[in-house]
Amino acid sequence: MADTLGERINGLLRDVPDFPEPGIGFKDISPLLADARAFDEVVDGLAGVARLGDAEIDLVAGVEARGFLIAGALACRLGAGLVPVRKAGKLPPPTLTRSYDLEYGSAEIEVPSGVLDGRRVLLVDDVLATGGTLRAAAELVGQAGGTVTALAVIVELGFLGGRDALNGLAPLHSLLTL
Ligand code: AMP
What we know:
The chain is of the alpha/beta class. It has a single domain, classed as Rossmann fold (3-Layer(aba) Sandwich), CATH 3.40.50. Helices cover 31% and strands 33% of the residues. The longest helix is centred in the N-terminal third of the chain and has 15 residues, at 36-50. The structure holds adenosine monophosphate (AMP).
């Protein structure tokens, strides 16, 4: 029997122990991106998710940095625009900024001003871990006047409970849950 998309994704992830810090089991999507057919299927899978709701999507927002790789391809597939959600200090002003808590310390993300107001947005990233980054990104899109209609990731690390952290924001779709 043919593999499901989830199984194919799982077969093309590289597990990197203790990266970028001791204790983190990093899921490297590089082999997946480098496989033309699998990458195409992933973009198709995420596009299918985007089309599930009634609402048309105006923009795909991708979270720095690996979210950009998916968001660009996905935006083209959907006929939507693209917005980068960047780490603070990378975008030229004017920007809107949001701080959020990490396990140790805090981080800041930014979006360009003026492109999100009144737009319907699909927010994407490669991996959902604790959910803190995606929650902050969704809140920032809202702060900028956009409406997040759905959240989508390739891989959800279910054991980290990120889905619960995103409760009440928008429907979350993942192509593979580990
Ligand atoms: P989160 O804990 O959900 O806020 O994850 C923060 C960011 O780090 C996300 O953009 C993920 O892409 C990335 N990330 C976190 N944990 C992992 C992991 N185990 N493997 C790959 N990427 C990760």
